[in-house]
Design goal:
alpha/beta; 4-stranded parallel sheet; about 600 residues; about 15% strand; Ubiquitin-like (UB roll)
Length: about 600
């Protein structure tokens, strides 16, 4: 323990902490811009300057370790003067265009300027030449707005393990960009949007498709349906002043109807369908391996509902592509069904049907444009909006969101189970799959409290569980006495660690869930900013609450899914399912 003084307050604190760590622990406000929770301090922005007695110059609180008898000033006149100068320097190179910037309402640099009373830029000089990069389907980058905080570099390199962004050139010419200041489409980027989620200004964001969607909504010749991912209902309310984790399912449905969508559906319906198809695929692989003794069965099987993860595999680990489930993501399953099964049901020509997705993910914009995603005979999903884009649409349409009365989604693609709700959480897909697979194999309900597989829940990077299979029935007798080994991972750097362990033979599993973003989809790149672990935990809790409130909590119990197979699909992994609901992957060059 060390004795220090902060703002005349004597404290006894643990050794090994930084000044910022201590300040946060004792609720002493120090502004930051480059700092990321749980990551190595960068000291890049210098906004967190404090003064230490005996030190000649102010120091960055985020990267300065505490010392015995250190005397620190975090709020004096001199400290505020230094911070204000730093903010002015940042603004002097920042091409803000605040009136039209997408971040004008929640820009962290603008907030700091207001906090420190910056009313003019005293440092006049040349501004860097900007570049707009909209070369990918998911993201747009405006280098003129970049303040070189390097948050995007940190999250891309050390959270996602992709390293698509890095400092380029030197001095005044420094840019935070892909190699050689190339376009994002020219490097290995998985379009996960975590850079957009943590950028403090408007330098990186999702590609805005609001006007395109508004245009089709105003076209009387188009029948426009919308699907909403499970993570949206636990986060959208934050954009309207609600606390994190507030469930707004009913209000969201009403808002979408008010915007003019002809039918409002739930991606959760397709999530239930994914569990049936994916669970059957897993059991079939196990049977082929253990009973048929086939040597080429690809185990472990990986989930395939996260498009950033798919891109990561295609670029970095193509040798594991055969291990991916062939199931499309719920988003793409829904699009294919909407333009076939549903279009026929309501007698609408699929060429006149537009499918819009509301997703927590920027990579979903890319996924919708993959060449394989047209099994309906048309592009299965036409447009993808993030949670943030939906909030903007609602505000632009003068809809009083918090005053809306809850409403229900349309049928038949709107009914879902609690198992589908938790798809938005890390570990949720695995738990949903186990609820169904265990019951199919044993004929009894999963013997866990409230059906929750707690071993794979929570924010630990890599989680695992082992499930004994006893009293197996019928065709699944061959699994009698076996133990199903599963793992769950979120964040691509964690996925890399797991893949390398499997490759070396250190770990062995049957089924693995991988989510691209920290926390799963509730922490997606298109969710309301700023997302830290406290926010993630609240959103996760909300989806478990939604799950527990449902009449049906296992995907195979969904009566509309049962009806879909009876009327249209026939059976899981059948011919129609294969054509509409399954896909393949390709090896991509790593750049």
């Amino acid at each position: 323990m060390l004795n220090i003084t902060i703002n005349d307050q004597r404290l006894e604190v643990d050794d090994g902490l930084t000044i910022l760590d201590v300040a946060k622990k004792h609720k002493i406000h120090i502004p930051t811009l480059c700092h990321l929770e749980g990551k190595k301090p960068m000291g890049a922005c210098r906004v967190c300057l404090v003064e230490v007695k005996g030190y000649k110059d102010p120091v960055a609180a985020c990267s300065t370790p505490i010392e015995q008898n250190m005397v620190i000033d975090t709020k004096g006149r001199s400290v505020r003067k230094h911070r204000k100068a730093v903010i002015e320097l940042l603004l002097s190179e920042h091409n803000g265009e605040c009136l039209t910037c997408s971040r004008k309402d929640n820009c962290e640099l603008k907030a700091l300027a207001e906090e420190y009373g910056v009313t003019e830029i005293t440092f006049k000089g040349e501004k860097k030449e900007g570049k707009i990069d909209d070369s990918t389907w998911g993201l747009t980058r405006d280098s003129a707005k970049c303040v070189h905080c390097r948050r995007c570099v940190e999250v891309c390199s050390n959270v996602q393990g992709v390293a698509a962004l890095a400092p380029q050139f030197r001095g005044f010419k420094t840019q935070i960009a892909p190699a050689f200041a190339s376009n994002m489409s020219e490097v290995t980027c998985v379009q996960c949007g975590q850079c957009a989620a943590i950028c403090p200004v408007g330098a990186i964001g999702e590609k805005n498709d609001i006007e395109k969607v508004l245009s089709v909504l105003e076209d009387p010749k188009k029948f426009v349906v919308v699907q909403t991912a499970p993570a949206i209902r636990a986060a959208l309310g934050e954009e309207f002043g609600n606390t994190a984790g507030t469930l707004v399912t009913g209000k969201m449905t009403s808002a979408l109807r008010a915007l003019g969508f002809d039918a409002v559906f739930d991606t959760n319906f397709a999530a239930d369908l994914t569990i049936i198809e994916e669970g059957t695929e897993l059991l079939t692989r196990l049977k082929n391996s253990l009973v048929e003794n086939k040597k080429d069965v690809a185990l472990p099987m990986f989930t395939s509902c996260s498009p950033g993860w798919i891109l990561y595999m295609e670029h970095f680990y193509p040798s594991f592509l055969k291990n991916l489930s062939t199931c499309k993501s719920p988003q793409q399953m829904f699009g294919a069904l909407a333009k076939t099964y549903y279009a026929k049901k309501i007698n609408v020509d699929p060429k006149d049907m537009i499918v819009v997705s509301i997703m927590p993910c920027t990579a979903k914009k890319f996924e919708a444009r993959r060449e394989e995603m047209n099994s309906s005979g048309y592009q299965d999903v036409d447009y993808v909006l993030t949670t943030r884009e939906l909030a903007k649409m609602i505000k632009q349409s003068s809809i009083d969101f918090n005053s809306l009365i809850d409403s229900q989604m349309n049928s038949p693609l709107g009914l879902s189970t609690g198992a589908a709700d938790i798809f938005g959480n890390t570990g949720g897909v695995m738990e949903a799959a186990i609820r169904t697979a265990y019951e199919i194999v044993t004929g009894t309900e999963l013997p866990l409290k409230n059906l929750h597989l707690t071993d794979v829940a929570g924010l630990k990077g890599i989680k695992e569980a082992a499930l004994p299979l006893n009293a197996c029935k019928g065709d699944w007798k061959f699994l009698e006495g076996a133990t199903l080994k599963v793992a769950v991972v979120h964040g691509l750097e964690n996925a890399k660690e797991l893949l390398e362990s499997i490759r070396k033979g250190d770990l062995s599993y049957h089924f693995i869930e991988v989510m691209t973003c920290p926390g799963g989809c509730i922490g997606g790149g298109g969710q309301p900013r700023f997302t830290d672990n406290k926010i993630r935990e609240k959103r996760i809790k909300a989806l478990y609450k939604e799950d527990e409130s449902k009449q049906y909590r296992k995907s195979h119990d969904n009566p509309d899914i049962q009806k879909l197979y009876k009327e249209f699909l026939g059976k899981p992994l059948g011919h129609i399912s294969h054509e509409l609901l399954h896909t393949h992957y390709i090896t991509r060059e790593r750049v």
